[in-house]
Amino acid sequence: MSKMTIHNLECPHCGNKQETKVWHSVNVKLDPELKRKLFDAQINMFSCEKCGKKTFINAPLLYHDMTQQFFVQYYPPESLDQREFFQCRPAKISGGHSNPLKIGVITHGRSRNDLN
To answer: Which of 15, 49, 75, 96 is the most exposed place for a label (fewest CB within 10 A)?
Structure first.
């Protein structure tokens, strides 16, 4: 399921405040039009109604393609500077066993892998 909330955001260029959609997750099997919008840079993009300038909304976003059995979670790069971001907790799997969660992060040329 795709998830979006409405926020009253301020344009960083002219100060105009307006309601804007902020997407938290997109499921392109259930909402196929969102795939095109994402690749056309229309998801989490603030378009000011007053000055016309566009600004990326730097918010976490989950992309899920059930058909391809693929998902990716975007986090803003500043998340990498927060210690809590890399603290892993065991993930429960079927049968009640626990497996440590493995994280691979690549952002702007920096990479951190298997950080648990």
So the answer is: 96
